[in-house]
Design brief:
By secondary structure, the protein is mainly β. The chain has 2 domains: 42 residues, no CATH class; 92 residues, Immunoglobulin-like. Helices cover 0% and strands 53% of the residues.
């Protein structure tokens, strides 16, 4: 990796400024060697690049032990995630929750887990990811179950019936 650099020196403090970095440079190792007439010194560090969230993947719902809407989000610092169903905030709890299964290089891989969803959970899901550097949103349609009244429209007719008892009368 060859990066444009600028070194500013004022007395005992030197500042190394790197430009044209991207989120792909996060956790890259950078080494700096200082040399003068009395010797040489080298130091290394890992770059901690701060960047806005980017939703890398938002896939269709898949049935597993629970239903899962898989996603991958990158961001540093860690993005705050919020789900919406048809533009209404999803309240997470025991039956609907965000699960992060793996974290790699400031990428968060997981799913919105739904336990036994019904037709009431069908709709357009939007994932919103935010941190102090920005935000990103993506949407996916999810269909878990047919509505009980889907299909042929049926007219229901109620028939009121009455039962008459006849008595035998003797005259």
């Amino acid at each position: 990796m060859c990066l444009p650099t600028q070194i500013e020196t004022s007395g005992q403090i030197s500042v190394l400024r790197l430009s044209n970095l991207s989120s792909l440079d996060h956790n890259s190792k950078i080494s700096c060697t200082a040399e003068n007439i009395v010797g040489e010194k080298e130091s290394s560090l890992l770059l901690d690049i701060l960047f806005p969230p980017k939703i890398l993947k938002l896939s269709d719902a898949i049935p597993d032990h629970h239903w899962c809407i898989p996603f991958s989000v990158a961001g540093n610092p860690e993005p705050q995630l919020q789900w919406f169903l048809d533009d209404k905030a999803v309240t997470e709890g025991v039956f609907i929750m965000t699960m992060i299964h793996d974290i790699t290089e400031r990428e968060y891989h997981g799913c919105l887990q739904l336990d036994s969803p019904t037709h009431l959970n069908n709709g357009r899901y939007k994932l919103s990811a935010k941190n102090k550097f920005g935000s990103d949103e993506r949407e996916v349609e999810a269909h878990f179950m047919r509505k009980p009244w889907d299909g042929e429209e049926r007219n229901v007719v109620f028939i009121k019936s009455s039962i008459h008892f006849l008595q035998n009368r003797q005259n």
